[in-house]
Amino acid sequence: RLNADNARFLLLAVLIVLYMLCGAAVFSAIELPTEREAKERWEERLENFTRRHNLSRAELRHFLREYEEASVAGVRVDDIRPRWDFTGAFYFVGTVVSTIGFGMTTPATVGGKIFLIFYGLIGCAGTILFFNLFLERLITVIAYVMKSCHERQLRRKGVLPHNGRRGSGTSEVDSLVGWKPSVYYVMLILCVASLIISCCASAMYTPIEGWSYFDSLYFCFVAFSTIGFGDLVSSQNIRYESQGLYRFGNFVFILMGVCCIYSLFNVISIVIKQSINWILKKLACKCCHRCQRRLFHSRRNVVMPGNVRSRRNISIETDVVHESDTDGRRLSGEMISMKDFLASNKVSLAIMQKQLSETANGYPRQMNSNSKQNGFSGGVGALAIMNNRLAETSVDR
C-alpha cells in the first residue's frame, strides 16, 4: 500500500511539473511579444519626455521610483476611495481570510504586518473550515435532489410503487438503497453553477466598473478561484450609482463564487486522483499479474481469510476505488492468526487428525461411549490443540 501511495505521489508530482512547464511555454509565447512592444513604447516616451523638458534620465527614473512607492501605499493619480477607511479595511480583511489577496492594499507599518500574520493564520484556517462544511452540505443537497430524480424515474418505469414503498425485491429497487450520485454528475452541476454565478456577476461588473464582459469574466475566475492577481479589482472607485447595493451584491457574488469554485476544485481533485490510479494500472506489468494469478490458482490449500472485494463504484463519497491490497492473497512472509488458520483449513485438519488417530490406535479406532467428540480425540502437541478446537466446533450426530 505504501509503494502504491508513493507511486501515486511521484506520478502526480511529475504531471504537475509537466503541466507547469507547458503552461509556462504557452504564456511565454503569448505574452512575451506584447511585453517587449510595451517596453519599447515606454522607452520611446521616456526619451521624448526627457528631451522635451530638458531632464536627465537619472532624475526622471528617481521620480518614477518615488511614485511607485506612493502607489504601493495607496496613492493613485485618479480619485479613488480611501484604502484604509472602515469599508476599505473590511474589503481588505475579506481578501485575506478568503486567501484571494488582490494586493492593491497591503499593510505598510510594522505593526500592521505583524498583526496580519496572526490574523491571517486564524482567519484563513477558519475560512477553509467554512468552505469544507459548505462543501459537505452542498453535496448533501445535490445527493438528495439527484436521488429524488432517480426515484421519480423508477416510479415512471413502474419499478417503484407510487406510495414510496419497496416492491417485490427487484434489482432496481435494491440498488436504490445507499444510492449516491456519481462524482462526474456532481462536477457537472458545480461547473454549471459556477458558470451561472460568473455570468451574472459579469453582467453586474461590466456597466458599473466599465470593464468589457470578457474582462469581467476574467476577474470572476481570478477572484473566485482565490488567485487574486490584483490587475482588476472591483469596488475601488470613490463613488458608484447605488453604492450600498452594489457593494452588497459584490460581496454576495464573491462569497458564492468562492464557495462554488472551491467545491469544484475538490471534486476535480477526486477525478484527477481516479485518473492517476487508472494510469498506474495501465503502467503496471500485466504479465506479472498473470503469473501471480496462475501461482495463486495452483495452490489449492492456500489460506484466504476474509472476502475478496471487487467493487469499482466511484461516487462522491467514495473518492477512491475500493480494492483489496493483496487481491485476496497473503504475502509469503506474512504471519496468520490461529483463528484464520482454523477457519480456512478446518476440513483438511479434521481429516488429517482422524487419519493420524486411527493409525496410532489401530483401525477401526474404538470409541469411548462417554466421548462425544465425534472422532476427534487424542493427539499430541499442536494436534491436541487442534483436536480440542475441532471438538468444540463439531456437531453431535
From TrEMBL:
Membrane topology: Multi-pass membrane protein
Recorded catalytic activity of this chain's protein: K(+)(in) = K(+)(out)
Keywords: Cell membrane, Coiled coil, Ion channel, Ion transport, Membrane, Metal-binding, Potassium, Potassium channel, Potassium transport, Transmembrane, Transmembrane helix, Transport, Voltage-gated channel
GO process annotations (BP): stabilization of membrane potential
Any Pfam family: Ion_trans_2
Cross-referenced InterPro entries: 2pore_dom_K_chnl (IPR003280), 2pore_dom_K_chnl_THIK (IPR005410), K_chnl_dom (IPR013099)
GO molecular function list: metal ion binding; outward rectifier potassium channel activity; potassium ion leak channel activity
Protein family membership: Belongs to the two pore domain potassium channel (TC 1.A.1.8) family.
Amino-acid biosynthesis listed as a keyword: no
Compartment(s) where it occurs, according to its Swiss-Prot or TrEMBL record: Cell membrane
GO cellular component: monoatomic ion channel complex; plasma membrane
Residues passing through the membrane, by range: 6-30, 89-110, 116-146, 183-205, 211-233, 245-265
Source domain of life: Eukaryota
Residue intervals of the Potassium channel domain: 76-138, 188-273
Coiled-coil positions: 32-59
Protein's name in the database: KCNKD protein
Organism: Eulacestoma nigropectus
